[in-house]
Amino acid sequence: MAIDNALWLNLAVALGIGLLIGAERERSKGTGADRSAAGIRTFTIAALLGAVSTLIDFWLLVVSIICVTIFAAIAYFNRKNEDPGLTTEITLVFTVILGGLAMTEASLAASLAVSAAILLAAKEPIHGFVRGAVTKEEMIDFLILAAATLIVLPLIPNELVGPFQAINPRNLWLIVIFVMLIGALGHLALRWFGRRIGLPIVGLVSGFISSIATIGAMGARARETPALLGSAVAGAVLSSLATILQLAMLLAVVHLPTLRTLAAPLIFGGIASITYGLVVTINSLHEQDAVMDKPSRSFSVKTALILAAVIALVLVASAALKTWFGQAGLVVASGLAGLADVHAATISIASLEAAGKLAPENAAIPILVAFSINAISKAVTAVVSGGKTFSKLVIPGLIIQVSATWFGWWLF
């Protein structure tokens, strides 16, 4: 059989796969009578066995895999009392398969081999992270997020349905995933920085989940501990900055042209929030470090689903009012939706524009109206939760933010 340069290269990749995985296993096999049965030589020969078997006949590769599996099982049962793990045995069978794969898809086989070697070498960090750093609730949240993304999302239709053809189920589910992801990222920030960052940064992170809820929590903290007033106000103001950042991210996902239309207002409002928030934060630096309890869950599935339901209702209502009353009806619908959540109104308007039911020049005003009315809800929350002293510092920040946003729209 003539062997060209390509086959020699594939054989070399198979040899490299065996050496790479075998070198890692050699370092972990131990010494003496309790050492593992497979090391660098065994893994290298296993990879070459898979490669040569594939080169001769596919069924020979199948027979080789079966034989190696039987040998690995015998070795495991002979030493299961000393080491109950199956990692080495399964990796040996996997190496045979990778050796065979290297003869047809060398790049893929090499990438898988490197990934396997990294997983094997990172045993202690991975075990320590899963057992010590990740709680049971966080693992459940991760599985929920993975299932929502990898299992549910592919099953959801990507077409307009419902009254006025206003709802795209796939887009709604993407919003659910996105809200959960933002919550998970915020949770990680709390886990990493914790007590050292104080209320301002926690307020910014929590604002991605709910700015109104964050302002309520900060107001309660300020009422309970007056010494933390400055830090609580900074956290409340920076949560409104998170609202702008989240709006920008949501618009980038739903409809990028809408984001371009609102770029100047969002930038002006963001700069105003950062400036006011930094001033309040600097003034609060003399206060003692604030501590907030770490949430046990990474995100709230209920919150994400409620937001999606609100978005669906607003989509239908906005489309209906737009059909019945034109642009004026759309502005009214956006304002009413903004009392509870500005993101729902924003996504609804952007979705209408993406579907071609709304001109770009008519999308900005309803979103800005919803954003402005949402600030009223925040102001009321500040008064109720934190009292007069807290609200007197938070409300000016909200006014400055909304004014800067409308100024950016007027200017550009």
Kindly estimate the percentage of residues that lie in beta strands according to DSSP. Answer: under 5%
Number of individual domains: 2
3D shape? elongated
Please give the oligomerization state of what you see.
Answer: single chain
Number of strands: 0
Unreliable spans are 289-295
**What string gives the helices and strands in order?**
HHHHHHHHHHHHHHHHH
Give the helix proportion (percent range).
over 70%
Provide the gyration radius in Å. Answer: 29 Å
Distance between the termini: 73 Å
Write down the overall mean pLDDT.
74
Number of helices, where a helix is a run of at least 4 consecutive DSSP H or I residues: 17
Structural class call reads mainly alpha
Descriptive account of the structure:
- α3 packs antiparallel against α4, α11 crosses α17 (364-411) and α16 packs across α17 (364-411).
- The model is unreliable at 289-295 (pLDDT under 50).
- The chain has 412 residues and is an all-alpha fold.
- The protein contains 17 helices and no strands.
- It folds into two domains: 5-130, no CATH class; 135-411, no CATH class.
- It has helices spanning 5-28, 40-56, 58-78, 87-101, 106-121, 123-133, 136-152, 169-193, 198-207, 211-224, 229-254, 256-261, 263-283, 301-325, 327-338, 342-354, 364-411.
